[in-house]
């Protein structure tokens, strides 16, 4: 049976998700919500730079709520509980990369009520990208006994992130250190990464303090740096590091870190990607230890990343591949461990 899918928002993740839906043998794109009035009324194929698809984008929420569809891939810049609740109440399953993969009872309550009332499901597909900071470390932990520490860490060059307004006004690049450290980014990230840490703590059974310890640091440019927001001048923020830790007593047991740099030159402190380059690292200490480096989710060049960033495509792909399982799941908020193991599908020209 083919599932009818709506894409909510057509930023970088949304565009990649649309392309993923078009490749998936069990999915059909039937609708698309856009934030911009300029995009409303356009064929979705034109919006993503492809052939016409016969699906017209709309900026009217009611158009989406009344549309006959099985699922929505919800990927705006910032999440809205009211929007997701409305989608669920309209009888649509929702898959999203923006959280709700391990919400607190308070965070879950209004969405659980909406999902149960309409007999549909909400599935959060993780973050960093697409569950790299929580599901993947937990999957690797099965290879160890006596686990004492889990770490997931990202090293990325944000010159490949073609969203200048987000980089400057949300993430704080190109501003002063004080404005970056007091800006909205830490709070925005806490919403997802707190869930990642709590999920690992709870699944592994660590006797950790319930209060997660966040921290942030900045690096400034020591010489002009070209970036998607223009030239970052000396003294302006050109690197950001965020860390979240769970402690058992005074011993860290879970640590998640993101290192976001505008290149690895002309920074103070002199942060760099080291000889391994951009990557994701996953570490599980136990008997035995496991250490995994993931390559391929970052582009080979800045120019390539500005055209199509693999990490963003991976985030979207996880959502696309989770649609069928989400639609088949019991009503309510369903996590990674409530759904069956999700996999990708063969490319159309190689599929059965």
From TrEMBL:
It comes from the Bacteria. InterPro entries: DAP_DH_C, NAD(P)-bd_dom_sf. Transmembrane segments: none annotated. Residues 139-343 form the 2,4-diaminopentanoate dehydrogenase C-terminal domain. Gene3D superfamilies: NAD(P)-binding Rossmann-like Domain (3.40.50.720). This is Dihydrodipicolinate reductase. It comes from Mycobacterium asiaticum.
């Amino acid at each position: 049976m083919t599932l009818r899918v709506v894409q909510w928002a057509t930023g970088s993740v949304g565009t990649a998700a649309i392309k993923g839906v078009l490749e998936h043998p069990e999915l059909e794109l039937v609708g698309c919500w856009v934030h911009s009035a300029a995009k409303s009324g356009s064929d979705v194929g034109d919006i993503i730079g492809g052939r016409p698809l016969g699906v017209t984008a709309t900026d009217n929420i009611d158009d989406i709520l009344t549309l006959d569809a099985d699922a929505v891939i919800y990927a705006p810049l910032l999440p809205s509980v009211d929007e997701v609740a409305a989608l669920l109440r309209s009888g649509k399953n929702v898959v999203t990369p923006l959280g709700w993969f391990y919400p607190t009872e308070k965070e879950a309550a209004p969405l659980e009520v909406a999902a149960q009332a309409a007999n549909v499901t909400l599935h959060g597909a993780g973050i960093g990208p697409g569950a790299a900071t929580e599901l993947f470390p937990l999957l690797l932990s099965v290879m160890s006994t006596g686990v004492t520490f889990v770490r997931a860490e990202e090293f990325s060059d944000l010159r490949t992130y073609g969203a200048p307004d987000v980089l400057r006004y949300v993430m704080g690049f190109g501003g002063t250190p004080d404005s970056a450290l007091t800006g909205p980014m830490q709070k925005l990230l806490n919403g997802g990464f707190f869930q990642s840490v709590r999920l690992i703590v709870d699944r592994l059974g660590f006797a950790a303090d319930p209060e997660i310890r966040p921290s942030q640091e900045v690096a400034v440019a020591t010489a002009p740096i070209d970036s998607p927001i223009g030239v970052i001048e000396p003294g302006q923020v050109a690197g950001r590091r965020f860390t979240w830790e769970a402690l058992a007593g005074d011993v860290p047991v879970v640590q998640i870190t993101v290192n976001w740099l505008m290149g690895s030159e002309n920074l103070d402190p002199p942060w760099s990607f080291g000889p391994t380059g951009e990557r994701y690292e996953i570490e599980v200490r136990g008997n035995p230890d496991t250490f995994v480096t993931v390559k391929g989710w970052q582009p080979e060049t800045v120019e390539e990343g500005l055209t199509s960033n693999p990490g963003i495509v991976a985030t979207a792909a996880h959502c696309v591949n989770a649609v069928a399982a989400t639609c088949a799941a019991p009503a309510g908020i369903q996590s990674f461990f409530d759904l069956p193991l999700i996999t990708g599908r063969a490319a159309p020209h190689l599929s059965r």
